[in-house]
Amino acid sequence: MHFETLAIHAGQDPDPAYGAVMVPIYQTSTYVQKKIGETEYDYARTANPTRTALQACIAALEGGKHGLAFASGMAAIDCVLRLLRPGDHVLASNDVYGGTYRIFERVYRDYGIAFSFVEMGDLDAVRAALRSTTRMVWVETPTNPLLKIADIAGIAGVLAQAPARPLLVVDNTFASPYLQRPLALGADIVVHSATKYLGGHSDVVSGLVVLNDDALHDRLKFLQNAVGAVPGPLDCFLVLRGIKTLPLRMERHSANAMRIAAWLTAHPRVAQVLYPGLPSHPGHAIAAKQMSGFGGMISFVVKGGPAEARRVAEATRLFALAESLGGVESLVEVPAAMTHTSVANSPLAVDPALIRLSVGIEHADDLIADLAQALA
Ligand code: P1T
Q1: Residue 17, Cβ neighbours under 10 Å: how many?
Q2: Secondary structure E strands in 124-215
Q3: Both 194 and 289 in a single domain?
Q4: Which residues are known catalytic residues?
Q5: In a 10 Å sphere around its CB, with 0-12 CB exposed, 13-18 middle and 19+ buried, how is residue 42 labelled?
Q6: What does the alpha-carbon distance between residue 274 and residue 298 come to, in Å, rounded to a whole number?
Q7: Quick one: which of 19, 135, 177, 315 has the most CB atoms within 10 Å?
């Protein structure tokens, strides 16, 4: 079936108890067993029906075999990183979410995992940066917050030639499965902050993992239960509900962002606009090839430096000054001072004059009017 149909129905048969059309919130921690072990569900950390539906739904949307849900995007990332052993090396994008950099450098480095960062848009650089110990290649595309684009199929091709083929992990948060499906392009594992476009309404924190490999899935499912960073049933319900309108929302996010990016490009107080939908963006051709739209995230640099960036971000009225992204409402932030403080003084440090927009699904004219008054 088509994506729009799967978004509404995948994993969500009418409820066997009473025929409820929407998957119920199974708000219970434990389940009665007819005899010892004779039960579909036993304990809600291990599994619960609302989570089962969400896991099946995200697997279908990403075109994967297995889905796993977590209490946050970071919990999903953490679970994937637990596949590593001391001595392993991870090659990652040289622009990633601040929290991703933080868990790499300030949590897993202490356990003997090495991390290095590369321009993922440059396949020769990726090839050159691989080590004999590289077990994982960690890709964000588009990246947070610089909207850099990496060629997922190209990287998969490079890794296929490596002696011990590393796992290719793609954080698909910025694109959502509606715009980009990394497994079909050769990725092994997809991770999401479902807090963003999948949830879509800024009312839930959640994370997801999707993959095809049965053995890897068994290990991650074991870790999901053993570590226990699972989402509650209400959180799973909210993500399931959000996903139903994902296709409609992503179309509007993308259309609004395209208009705003073009408008910003022509604005005299704007020095640079980063949006993969602009033909001038260095990753535009790859983005046009591997994505079916360019998404709702825009970053731009204002003339006048960091103080001016803060002034503009604090002067918007419709764009709320807030971290996070992907909700129906538009948000603005200054990454260097907000979402990306963890990369300060590192090679991934973000220009303090950079402003990031999460363009919502309001009317584009109202959003442009707001940016116009803030920039003025
Ligand atoms: O916040 P959480 O649900 O734990 O997801 C972490 C995460 C993972 N990957 C990417 C690409 C992300 O952007 C995030 C979270 N990002 C923000 C909160 C933000 O404002 O950028």
Answers
A1: 9
A2: 134-140, 167-171, 189-193, 207-211
A3: no
A4: 45, 97, 171, 196
A5: middle
A6: 6
A7: 177
% residues pLDDT > 70 (the chain) = 100
Instruction: From 184, 215, 243, give the residue that closes a domain.
Output: 243
Query: Residue 29 belongs to a domain with what CATH number?
Result: 3.40.640.10
Ligand 1 centre to CA of 161 (Å) is 31
Co-location of 201 and 236 in the same domain = yes
The CATH number covering residue 298 comes to 3.90.1150.10
Q: Tell me the per-residue pLDDT of 133-161, one tens digit each, with 9 for 90 and over.
A: 999 999 999 999 999 999 999 999 999 99
Structural domains in the chain (count): 2
Q: Which residues form the domain of 107?
A: 3-243
What atom in ligand 1 is closest to the CA of residue 358?
20
**Residue 326 to residue 73: CA distance in whole angstroms:** 13
pLDDT tens column, 276-298: 999 999 999 999 999 999 999 99
96 C-alpha to center of ligand 1: Å?
Answer: 9
